[in-house]
Amino acid sequence: MMKEKVRRVLAGLLVPALVWVLMGCALAVYHAAPEALALLEEEGVWTEDNLTVLSAEEADTALIFYPGALVEPASYLPLLEGVRQMGVSCIIVEMPLGMAFLDLNAADEVMERFPEVEHWLLGGHSLGGAMASQYAARHADRAEALILLGAYIYGDYPAEQALTVYGSLDRGLGTGLGYTENVVILEGGNHAQFGNYGPQLGDPEAEISAGEQQAQTLEAIQSFLAGRGLL
Question: Fewest 10 Å CB contacts: which of 57, 91, 137, 148?
Fold first, then answer.
């Protein structure tokens, strides 16, 4: 009886505490920079429910992109606009509380909403990349390729179908990689500059600009997709 009472008391304390933690996470978002938000006004770019869509003309290939933890989806518009210019539509998913692990299977709904797309790519940054990778590993028949930024393959997905890009100053990457195929290291790049949302806690200052880091990333993406016949 006493043990049961203790359990109830602990549950009563822990649940509100968890709610406060989650609320704090929701408020501690890395907000998109003005130059990223400006791209929401571009033709062919729109938001629809929890999706931000960059539509490429007559595209039959699309990239579903999972953002990094607590990063506002629009932060990735400058980079993904470059992908759209390659003829690939991009769809950024806004995650519950900014955490991709809370909606790992978000890609399912995206694919259902855009039945005209014939070739699906999965990608993401940081935590978003890890969760996109896990989804792709479980649904290899749906994801023709995987693009990971500041993340590495998490799950059983073929390395030859994945591109991994990270900055040389990213303290969290490198040691965790168990493969070398299609790995691009950006000299002087850091963890945050794949998006336009400013400095990230614990991330060293980059030795190259965000524009340069993203330009090199786009070169790597274009080369990878072209090599797989997806452009």
Answer: 57
For tokens 């007559």, name the residue.
58
pLDDT above 50 (res 204) = yes
The tokens describing 197, both together, are 């949302």
Q: What percent of the chain is modeled with pLDDT above 90?
A: 79
C-alpha distances (whole Å) from 185 to each of 80, 87, 189 are: 19, 25, 8
Q: Could you tell me if 204 and 224 are in contact, meaning their C-beta atoms sit under 8 angstroms apart?
A: no
Q: Which two tokens stand for residue 113?
A: 């909403």
Exposed e or buried b per residue across 102-137, where buried means at least 16 C-beta atoms within 10 angstroms of its C-beta: ebbebbeebbeebeebebbbbbbbbbbbbbbbbbbb
> Band of the pLDDT at 185, cuts 50, 70, 90?
very high
d(CA 74, CA 92): 8
Write the CB contacts of 60 (distance below 8 Å, at least 6 apart in sequence).
116, 117, 118, 119
Rounded Cα distance, 209 and 150, in Å: 16
pLDDT at 71 over 50: yes
C-alpha torsion sign, points 66, 72, 78, 79 = negative
Question: Phi, psi (5° rounding) for residue 69?
Answer: -60, 125
Q: Which two tokens stand for residue 68?
A: 């990094």
